[in-house]
């Protein structure tokens, strides 16, 4: 993608995603105007300049597809993948994916992504190319009143605080310890928050250090909690509560919760959360064991 392609990619992300979900589930993912999707190239180009592959129809110069990728210390992550509706089912996404896999293979790194479990086109796209699901998440949505959540505060809340720049290394170390991946530069970017759209909370360990963290984004094009990692579900719940109250009052963000964290899910139902989608963490290549509670997101897209 060159700078001159950017606006067309923004429109493609908006139109492709909405067209697919409208056709299959009679709903739009992105409301408002296509311009709300500018957040994706803005964040991705700030983090990883030049890491977007586009496909062009050579017969007429039309943009047929696009996908961003994110080289990190331990892996590459991939997303957001789109084909234009006029080109669905013609191998455009596979062609783009192969290009990115070749880059990752040359660097001898695994590739990770989060794909919808309700979208067989994307599930098949990735599993046909050797991706294997390693975790299942339920996407939960929770409206937050203007005055904050009206539920009993979870235990451990007193240990939660806003992250400061010095926390980025400890966050990266914790994710490496629990989940076997490292991506410090994402956390530096979120904590720095030059765009004014990010929030980051950490939960301090009883014996020092941090036991978990949770980032969040609040923008017209993306309202989500994540990415986050915690050693215990109770800590993850305290982080969710803190991030919702600190940054999402009057909103209704989405967050991905591992389906096997039954006690956490049960508490979230008690707070009024509802399921709105299902996602799979997928990896092509080495997959370190998952420990603790992962809360992935789509920006950058990795579990
Ligand atoms: C998902 C999406 C990117 C796929 O793009 P596409 O260009 O239509 O995909 P392709 O034509 O490359 O097809 C992908 C592969 O899946 C295969 N496939 C599709 N449905 C399948 C099924 N039910 N079972 C098995 N394989 C299937 C296709 O045959 C193809 O493999 P092949 O080339 O080896 O035959 C496109 O539907 C899209 O942009 N959707 C909206 C946005 C979105 O959902 N993005 C992904 C977010 S997780």
CA(first)-CA(last) distance: 25 Å
Round the mean pLDDT to the nearest integer and report it: 96
Q: Give a list of the ligands.
A: coenzyme A
Largest sheet: 8 strands, mixed
**Low-pLDDT stretches:** none
| Assigned CATH architecture of the largest domain | 3-Layer(aba) Sandwich
Number of domains: 2
Structure classification: alpha+beta
Global morphology? globular
Order of helices and strands: HHEEEEHEHEEHHEEEHEHEEEE
CATH class of the largest domain: Alpha Beta
Q: Tell me the fraction of residues in β-strands, as a range.
A: 25-35%
Question: At the third CATH level, what is the topology name of the largest domain?
Answer: Aminopeptidase
Give the count of helical stretches: 8
Radius of gyration: 19 Å
Helix % is 25-40%
Record field, number of beta strands:
15
Model description:
The protein is an alpha+beta fold and 303 residues long. It has two domains: 3-134, 3-Layer(aba) Sandwich (Aminopeptidase), CATH 3.40.630.30; 138-302, 3-Layer(aba) Sandwich (Aminopeptidase), CATH 3.40.630.90. 32% of the residues lie in helices and 29% in strands. The protein contains eight helices and 15 strands. Strands 1, 2, 3, 4, 5, 6, 11 and 12 form an eight-stranded mixed sheet that branches. A five-stranded antiparallel sheet has the order 7-8-9-10-13, with helices on both faces. Strands 14-15 form a two-stranded antiparallel ribbon. A hairpin with a 4-residue loop joins strand 2 (63-71) and strand 3 (76-78). Helix 5 packs antiparallel against helix 6. The longest helix has 20 residues, at 6-25. The relative contact order is 0.17. The mean pLDDT is 96.
């Amino acid at each position: 993608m060159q700078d001159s392609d950017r606006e067309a990619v923004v429109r493609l992300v908006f139109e492709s995603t909405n067209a697919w979900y409208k056709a299959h589930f009679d709903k739009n993912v992105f409301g408002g105007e296509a311009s709300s999707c500018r957040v994706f190239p803005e964040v991705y180009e700030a983090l990883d300049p030049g890491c977007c592959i586009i496909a062009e129809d050579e017969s007429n110069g039309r943009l047929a597809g696009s996908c961003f990728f994110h080289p990190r210390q331990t892996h590459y992550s991939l997303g957001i993948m789109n084909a234009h509706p006029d080109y669905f089912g013609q191998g455009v996404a596979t062609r783009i994916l192969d290009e990115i896999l070749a880059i990752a293979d040359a660097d001898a790194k695994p590739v990770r992504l989060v794909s919808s479990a309700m979208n067989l086109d994307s599930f098949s796209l990735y599993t046909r190319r050797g991706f294997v699901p390693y975790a299942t998440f339920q996407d939960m949505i929770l409206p937050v009143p203007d005055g904050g959540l009206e539920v009993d505060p979870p235990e451990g809340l007193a240990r939660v605080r806003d992250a400061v720049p010095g926390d980025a290394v400890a966050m990266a170390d914790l994710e490496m310890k629990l989940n076997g991946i490292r991506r410090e530069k994402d956390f530096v970017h979120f904590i720095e928050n030059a765009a004014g759209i990010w929030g980051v909370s950490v939960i301090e360990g009883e014996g020092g250090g941090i036991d978990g963290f949770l980032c969040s984004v609040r923008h017209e094009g993306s309202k989500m909690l994540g990415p986050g990692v915690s050693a215990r579900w109770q800590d993850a719940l305290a982080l969710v509560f803190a991030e919702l109250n600190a940054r999402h009052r009057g909103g209704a963000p989405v967050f991905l919760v591992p389906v096997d964290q039954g006690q956490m899910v049960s508490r979230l139902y008690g707070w009024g959360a509802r399921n709105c989608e299902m996602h799979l963490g997928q990896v092509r290549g080495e997959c370190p064991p998952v420990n603790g509670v992962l809360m992935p997101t789509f920006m950058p897209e990795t579990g």
